[in-house]
Amino acid sequence: xxxxxxxxxxxxxxxxQAGIEEMIRANPRAKEMPLSDAQLAERFGVSRITVRxxxxxxxxxxxxxxxxxxxTFVRRNKLRERLTLNSFLDAWTKRTGxxxxxVGAFERIPADKEIATRLAxxxxxxxxxxxxxxxxxxxxxAIDDRYIRADRCSRLTTQDIRTSSLVDxxxxxxxxxxxxxxxxxxxxxxxxxxxxxxxxxxxxxxxxRRMTFLTKNNEPVLTGTSIYRxxxxxxxxxxxx
Length: 241
Hints:
Mean pLDDT: 82
CATH architecture of the largest domain: 3-Layer(aba) Sandwich
Distance between the termini: 53 Å
Number of strands: 10
Strand order of the largest sheet: 4-5-6-9-8-7
CATH topology of the largest domain: Chorismate lyase
Structural class: alpha+beta
Helix content: 25-40%
CATH superfamily of the largest domain: Chorismate lyase-like
Largest sheet: 6 strands, antiparallel
Number of domains: 2
Radius of gyration: 22 Å
């Protein structure tokens, strides 16, 4: 049994909370093992009610997360993505040398009603559809679906898709400068298809990002949607007046 960390005047659950955090820092393997309330209660010599309160606080703080019927786990450090026009590789490659990209689809398709509206083209207009799968240490963390006007990406190759952002490709290979974008982010629960693609359980949280990139003349050229594992990715915004 481990003694809880002594914090003058702090409630017992706060002391257990501090003890759990210290245990995580001291034991790298703790990040890979489930932590049950019963196990933690025995380890710290306190009641399960006290442990549950401490764990709830750590879940709220984003340090732990619960999987119903499975256990409580230490949340891994998230990949942080800055929201810029060409954020596809920026922060990801700097934070992990084992970042991997695979091409799931690369084909020409006719625009359906929704995508035609986003790109301000007629329904049925020829588009290039790209699906890109992003992995961290063989764990799928993001799926990108992108739609580009076919007359704007005649030189696009699989190598371009794997190694650079599409914004960079359009600028450097096609001479199209994308000036600004419209973006929407929402949290939702993964459906069966999304859960399978991201190695999650159905109903686990995901982040969904929809974006459209435009030229200085407000011509939409590139649009799409990305879905992310919420336990692996976070966003960073820089605000200015």
